[in-house]
Amino acid sequence: MMAIGYYAYQKSTSNISEYMLGGRRLHPAVGALSAGASDMSGWMLMGLPGAVYLSGVSEAWIAVGLTIGAYLNYRFVAPRLRVYTELAKDSITLPDFFENRFEDASHALRFISALVIIVFFTLYTSAGIVAGGKLFEASFGMDYQLGLFVTAGVVLAYTVIGGFLAVSLTDFVQGCIMFIALVLVPIVAFGGVGGLEGMESHIADAGARTTGMVDYFSWTKGTSLMGVISLLAWGLGYFGQPHIIVRFMAIRSLKDIAISRYIGMSWMIVTVTGAVIVGMVGLAYVQKSGLQATFSDPETIFILLSQTLFHPLISGFLLAAILAAIMSTISSQLLVSSSSLTEDIYKTFFKRHAAQSELVLVGRIATVLVCGVAIALAFDRSSSILSLVGNAWAGFGAAFGPIILLSLYWRNFTRNGALAGMIAGALTVLFWLFAPIKIDGQALSSIVYEIIPGFVISTIVAVGVSLVSQRVNEMDGEFEAMEKEMKTLPKYFL
């Protein structure tokens, strides 16, 4: 990873566009695996298997929702965003695009969107660092807090040095490692518990002792219609994730978007399926091996299987897959956060004519600062990886998802509509998470995933305000140019 970081330092850090977006020269395979690896993170190898281990197949609705959402994101957002961000004064960050798309001289859109990115990404980054701390604790008996610093230190090293290109290339390598691990572990573990019959038998034994395990293989038992909808709604989040859609902006050409989609979706289907199977077969293995009394953290089931079923050399490779997943997401999030602090805060409000070398330096300092705050938030050992990821995912999906879709498809979408919708989406998610309101003893977020009300309210507010507010001719020529270019390549997006 450090060697890749140095290579990227030599090739792509001469100016802020290269440091933050790789000069828009990203290979489609690198873009696809980079988007996938930065998306999935430690939650796919720890959070998702842990959820399936505890609650059964019904938790796999998350994987279904995410797969659908990822495809729709590639299909409807990626090509238009790649074209429009370049036409909109070569926008290199999401806040940059919003400001240029609506010709917002007040910088309000840029400031609010940058603020949302910094707040939710700091929370999101802390989830990855929590996963790193748990990995080093479970694998090497290392102190949890020390594990946080080791994880963050390695990621900081190559991210600060090499910028976007380093992050994307390391994500590609890490994505390959994750793919191999999530094919190998389920296959070996499945054979280790006696195949399908043995797995069903051992899970049935666990169900006789644990409330709710009897219906472990049911897609509907133990959940409600609203619960299934909430899990599927994770897919809505894709439209507003800055660390994912920035890859679309960086891919080298419009034609390459379709290639990236084929690679990315194939990778995703295999890996999320493997993660779900790890949780299922993991429960059977723990029951078969009599480890119920000593195994206490379901989010470490992948680690347990890796250490007990494989030769130490292979086990080390599999543990590296978890670290790869964690590192790929943290590095992407740190870079997007630092780009917002640098391009959207420092350059816009403090030093508009700063030299390119100065902006790169500020970006590196911002990366370190964001990481420091994320480490502080991760000090709580009881933090749930899936819960932290879910909160941040909902925040981005509700605040940015509707705004991005309307910006790309509705010519009459206005600056006031975008600003109002963005604020409404973010505040709705925060209200749903922290409001002291309970219904039948349950918190709002326990009844329905906060992205659903956030996305709906953001869309309604954005459309409503746009219909009643005066529209100026924001980027009409560029919008028409985007539409024209999209029509020239229909076969690539069917």
List keywords for this structure.
494 residues, mainly alpha, Sodium/glucose cotransporter, globular
Please describe what this structure looks like.
The protein is mostly helical and 494 residues long. It has a single domain, classed as Sodium/glucose cotransporter, CATH 1.20.1730. Helix content is 77%, strand content 1%. The protein is built from 19 helices and two strands. It has a two-stranded antiparallel sheet with strand order 1-2. Strand 1 and strand 2 form a beta hairpin. The longest helix has 49 residues. The radius of gyration is 22 Å and the shape is globular. About 1% of the residues have low confidence.
List the helices and strands and how they pair.
Blueprint: H1 2-11, H2 16-21, H3 28-55, H4 61-87, H5 94-102, H6 108-140, H7 144-192, H8 195-209, H9 225-232, H10 242-250, H11 255-289, H12 301-309, H13 312-350, H14 356-377, H15 385-409, H16 415-434, E1 438-439, E2 442-443, H17 444-447, H18 451-468, H19 476-487
Antiparallel strand pairs: 1-2
Helix pairs in contact: 1-7, 3-6, 3-7, 3-10, 3-11, 3-13, 4-9, 4-10, 4-11, 4-19, 5-6, 6-7, 6-13, 6-14, 6-15, 6-16, 7-11, 7-12, 7-13, 7-14, 8-11, 10-13, 11-12, 12-13, 13-14, 15-16, 15-18, 16-18
